Amino acid sequence: MNKNKISILLPNYNYVNYLEQRIESILSQTYENFELIIVDSYSNDGAWELINKYAALDARIIASQAPRGLYESWNRCLDQATGDFVYIATSDDTMRNDAMETMIQLLETHPQCGICDSNLEAIDSEGKPLDDFKARLPITQYLANYIDKQHIRQWPHDFLLYFSGAPVYTSITQLLVRKSLIDRCGRFSTRWGTKCDYEWGMKLASLSSTIYTPQKLASWRIHDNQVTSTHNADQNSFRHTWNKEMANSALNHLFESNKNLTAQQRKAFLKEIQILNALSYADTLKTGKPWNYPINFAKMVKQSPPASRQLVFNKFASLLAKKPVDLGTKLMKSIGIKNHLTTLIELESNTTYPTA
Predict the structure, then answer these.
(1) At the topology level of CATH, where does 1-92 sit?
(2) Alpha-carbon distance 32 to 141, whole Å?
(3) What number of other Cβ atoms are within 10 A of residue 305's Cβ?
(4) 135 to each of 17, 121, 139, 144, 148, how far by Cα in Å?
(5) For labelling alongside 109, which of 242, 277, 293, 333 has CA 20 to 30 A away?
(6) DSSP H/E element including 15
């Protein structure tokens, strides 16, 4: 039996059409030491009956029902998690049968990383690959040649990248996270509609480095009944305000996790973040694109005034050198001033995989 336990969390509401495939993808995992925590929001499409059928056959399944609420359900699952690692399995998606084994091995061999991020395959409602979908995403364009190479994104790479306004982690299903990191990060907010996982991802990234594998271990299903797609249109008008609020929330969380920072250091840190936000917003005015989808971060930083660029990374280097070792002190002392964030990506040898 594998030593470390994984808590696989499966919130569900009326996704019976996809639920059997999702549960089967979990029960067929080559890594067998897991608990499957299912919270169903009183589905009326037969999903609860299907869940009970599986729970009667496998003691690893812990099933319950609770009132409806997207992130409330995710939080209820987290409250029950007892594993060393956590994986959130959205009920309309799926994964390869070696997903858990591959990701937990990467985290076990990279103790400096709290997050394992796998490549992702987008599929349609029938499970057919959408080959061009992920290629259009800002994070795919940003990573470019790194997308098919295993690498470590050293803290605070992903945290800073979030301030470009484009999600670093496209879907929660591509992440395996240490439970100890989640305990530091806290639960999902319910303040920003279906965008709350963006703020949660930003908080995660504020605390840890990420190990990335180019293997497409998870599938993300794009369909008309997707919870996020049915709410996005109503929430577009709030996006600019919400992005600012979420950024401030993540920064406050970072400061709370590093109470040794003086008021002067916090003020300096905020100043440099404001420079990055200003550059992002200026690009919006220039290109006419939405604030939360500017050009990729590396290009944005390269195009910023050299003095500002140097100030940003010099300030981060000097500030982070005064933080606890577990938040990257040694790394930031050694790298000094960098011209753009890709210098925080560390390739690992002999780890190139085909992307197809």
Answers:
(1) Spore Coat Polysaccharide Biosynthesis Protein SpsA; Chain A (3.90.550)
(2) 35
(3) 10
(4) 27, 10, 9, 9, 12
(5) 333
(6) none
Q: What does DSSP say about strands 61-65 and 209-221: parallel, antiparallel, or unpaired?
A: unpaired
Q: Identify the pLDDT of residue 230.
A: 41
Quick one: pLDDT at residue 22?
A: 96
Give the 3-state secondary structure of residue 171: coil
Rounded Cα–Cα distance for residues 213 and 200 (Å): 21
CB 341 within 8 A of CB 161: yes
Q: DSSP letters along 235-250, please?
A: HGGGHHHHHHHHHHHH
pLDDT tens-digit map of 97-153: 999 999 999 999 999 999 999 999 988 888 888 877 777 776 777 677 778 889 888
Regarding pTM above 0.85, the answer is no
- What is the DSSP track for 200-247? HHHHHHTT-EEEEEEEEEEEEE--TT-HHHHHHHHHGGGHHHHHHHHH
Contact 327, 114 (CB under 8 A): no
d(CA 267, CA 265): 5
User: What distance in Å separates the CA atoms of residue 258 and residue 326, rounded to the nearest whole number?
Assistant: 11
Per-residue burial over 206-240, b = 16 or more CB atoms within 10 Å of its CB, e = otherwise: bbbbbbbbbbbbbbbbeeeebeeeeeeeeeeeebe
Contact predicate 8/37, CB 8 Å: yes
The C-alpha atoms of residue 232 and residue 230 are separated, in whole angstroms, by 6
pLDDT reading at 312 higher than 50: no
CA distance between the termini of the chain: 32
Residue with tokens 């908080």: 203
Indicate if the pLDDT at residue 354 is higher than 80.
Answer: no
- The DSSP result for 180-197, as a single string, is HHHHHH-PPPSTTGGGHH
Domain ranges of the chain: 1-92, 111-356
What average pLDDT does the chain have?
A: 74
Instruction: Report the distance separating Cα 131 and Cα 84, nearest Å.
Output: 34
Contact of 89 with 187, CB cutoff 8 Å: no
Residue in the structure block whose two tokens are 């319910």: 190
Distance CA 11, CA 177 (A): 17
